[in-house]
Amino acid sequence: MTTYNLALIGFGGVNRALAELIRDQPQRFASLGFKLRVVAITDLGFGSLVQPDGIDLATVLAMPRGASFEGMPGGSIEPRNEDVIKDSPADIVVEATFTSPGDAEPAVSHVRWALAAGKHVVTTNKGPVALFGQELTALAKDHGARFEYEGAVMSGTPVLRLARTMLAGLALEGVQGILNGTSNFVLGRMESGLRLEEAIAEAQQLGYAEADPGADIEGSDVRLKVTILANELLGANLSPEDVDTTGIQNLSSDDVAQAMANGHRWKLIGEANRGSDGTIKASVRPVALAADHPLAGIAGATNAVSFKTDLLGVVTVSGPGAGRIETAYALVSDIIAVNDYIKGAIRV
Ligand code: HSE
Q1: Residue ID of nearest Cα to ligand 1 atom 7
Q2: Beta bridge partner(s), residue 286
Q3: Residues with CB under 6 A from ligand 1
Q4: Taking the alpha carbons of 179, 182, 188, 191 in that order, is the dihedral positive or negative?
Q5: pLDDT at 252 over 60
Q6: In a domain, 337, yes or no
Q7: Domain count, the chain
Q8: Strand 264-274 relative to strand 172-178: parallel, antiparallel, unpaired?
Q9: Over the stretch 107-160, which tens digit does the pLDDT of each residue have?
Q10: Protein residue whose Cα sits closest to atom 4 of ligand 1
């Protein structure tokens, strides 16, 4: 059975969840036809660790925050991202670090180093995909590698590969979605009578919202996701700045109550549509949806995306859009795609 060597770049919630799956559930991967071995980990806090024969995941998962890989064989207090990505014996680089929405750094540099070294990259980081998706895919192709990023839009809930495979025979005229769990949760709580600020505070307590919930509430998180959907599924070449973006920050409790009285529900909708002249227009804005709209019933922190197709009409997929295990599953699905590519099974 093939064994893939992994380098985990970033050892926060998502990559730790992946490491737990590899440690605890080898049969999950064996049933897919491969084994996974982590040979390198880098992290701003822990530093770096490279062990070509395989890192003992139980040991590193037991290390508390504040500990360091220094002193372990192959360990250093420095993250050494560039050296580890280029020189470690990893076949697949798993990128799950912080990304700046402005320039997608440092994640995009990690991706570039890996692909240029001919290593496959799987990532849940939306910044590199939204800002540099086409460049990175071309770089991967030039070096015989794969660049897979299913989790960049709805974490483990399938969107991109689902559309490329199962909807391949359909003309796709547009996509429309609820792509931010925090804002959807907040709107639901406002329907229950909370003010916006109270609902945001509750979302923070529950761990849905970022410490600075601006990206969730003001629409910039959804803007990146809509850019990805437009470029990947509708063949657009948009930058995030091309997406007209309005968040939910100016919706009042009165606005929410009035919509409910009329049988409507406010949702933060990200969408991209092909116009009659063939151009793709994309936006993020609050919309008061009628109760029979496919996205009106999406509650809590759940995400959903509707595909507007010619032969099937509207097809909607919903599921979690965040969470450490859920997002780690997106990485698993990407590793499966890399394995399919290597085995010549599927090439999408
Ligand atoms: N903050 C995001 C959300 C997480 O609330 O949906 C995933 O991008």
Answers
A1: 322
A2: 268
A3: 180-182, 208, 210, 216, 221, 321-322
A4: negative
A5: yes
A6: yes
A7: 2
A8: antiparallel
A9: 999 999 999 999 999 999 999 999 999 999 999 999 999 999 999 999 999 999
A10: 322
